[in-house]
Amino acid sequence: MPELPEVATFKKYLDGTSLHQKINEVIVHDDKIIRNMSGDDFCAGMMDRSLTNSYRRGKYLFARLDNGYSLLLHFGMTGDLNYYHQQEDQTKHERFHFRFDNGAMLGFDCPRKFARILLLEDEEAYIRSIKLGEDALTIAEESFINAAINRKCTIKGLLLNQKILAGVGNLYADEVCYQCRVHPASPSSSIPTKKLKELHSTLQTILHQAVEQQAHYKEYPDDWFWSWRKDDALHPKTNEIIERAKIAGRTSYYFPEYQVLYV
Q1: Domain co-membership, 247 together with 170
Q2: Same-domain pairing of 88 and 142
Q3: What does the pLDDT look like over 127-166, one tens digit per residue?
Q4: Are 69 and 119 in contact (CB under 8 A)?
């Protein structure tokens, strides 16, 4: 599933192609991913509107309309945006597209149909209804530390909890734990404050760098955990064998001697 850096890249793409253009046609090929209304109602709600700006919160992208409504784009596992001018550039699994008054089209592609598209009258009410936490890219150090020391969960569980910290997924959570040498199964309330500050700072560094590189994994630093996060991998310095376990309900990779288990 796209994590915060991927959705930040979608936001940049949307902002760079599709703002301030009137929508004069809406074509829905398959309305399964439109979750709160029919395809016909969706078309009616988007016709003659324009996208004025966008807002990202965690893995959620809100495209704001000129009438105060918001189009929620949650990309699921395979959602993608495609801005194009020629019909032959339409993607195979396009579920709907908008045609703008300049003739260009913005399509939403989703092969596995796990995306969620909603047309919202009140964006803030929706965010409250799903109890979406603070954005992981902007959460303050104090808020992060308070969340950690006041909850009975693992640090991996804290990082993945979208009601506390919106935007972090499994891979980035393992990356943060590895870079800080913290075992992902450590209870968050047992981790010293100094180490929690390091976890917050490292999280910010990793996410900002990933956003700057537009989530192109091949361009991430060679010494990131991505390089050897797989079965039977050896730590490049200690030769310790990697281990895998279910932590907070997700498959987690770690080096049990290199990463400290706080208890």
Answers
A1: yes
A2: no
A3: 999 999 999 999 999 999 999 999 999 999 999 999 999 9
A4: yes
